Amino acid sequence: MSDTSICCITCVQTKTVAVVERLGAFVTLAGPGLHCLAWPITTVVGTLSLRIQQLDIMVETKTKDNVFVQVAVSVQYQVILEEAYSAFYRLSNVTQQISAYVFDVVRSTVPRIDLDDVFVEKHEIAQQVKAQLLKEMDEYGYNIVDVLVVDIDPARKVKDSMNQINASKRLRAAAHYKAEADKIRQVKAAEATAEATYLSGVGVARQRQAIVDGLKNSVNDFQKDVKGTSSTDVMDILLLTQYFDLLKDVGANTIYLRSGPDEVANLKMDLHKSVGQGGNRSKSTSFF
């Protein structure tokens, strides 16, 4: 029926066409606006919307690795104005026809793909469905505007397993990167230690070279100033001077003990004697 019809007057809405028959035979398509009909001989038997319509279809199928999934497909279709006659008379249920083609394409495509790849190839699946629908529905007066695979929903246990696998992969990658970072730190620390050791060795070598140069200059100067002295005499004096310097530096906080086998026992006896002598002196001392 038309959107508005009173006896011989009918009104067709925007983006709508009315199918007009006379005594059961097709006469014309009435566009939007007011129309006068020779009622009851001529009547409006139906209307077609020219707007884009959407059909949501849920397809259950199985992937190549034997996982059952629910594939949600949205089909956007529209009546072709020039083919409105075919759209009205050749198909009794357009949504059922579109659904049949969608089921056929999805169930012939997804079983050739593993579950992980199904998510990646959503666009390719949608394009295959669209190509099939365009070829089949064009002769019935319908244009397929677009096809979208909006969701792929495996079973709950399968999704939990996929999440665990992804989490394990990320943890493994994190451990790998952490190990690489530790390796780099250790290598850099070793390089720094080697460089520090090298520089320390260079410094010690320069220090010893400076000491040797200083001793050489001291020996030469001493021999020039003091006649009749040999280099051995000068070296003995220098060694004695360095020995006294050493005693001065370490004498403040270092005690040197004799290292003979009996030195510990001798030291113990010396301590006992010292303590005993101190006690005797304190007993014999009187201030009154």
UniProtKB/TrEMBL annotation:
<dbReference type="InterPro" id="IPR036013">
    <property type="entry name" value="Band_7/SPFH_dom_sf"/>
</dbReference>
<dbReference type="InterPro" id="IPR001107">
    <property type="entry name" value="Band_7"/>
</dbReference>
<feature type="domain" description="Band 7">
    <location>
        <begin position="7"/>
        <end position="166"/>
    </location>
</feature>
<dbReference type="InterPro" id="IPR050710">
    <property type="entry name" value="Band7/mec-2_domain"/>
</dbReference>
<dbReference type="Pfam" id="PF01145">
    <property type="entry name" value="Band_7"/>
</dbReference>
<protein>
    <recommendedName>
        <fullName>Band 7 domain-containing protein</fullName>
    </recommendedName>
</protein>
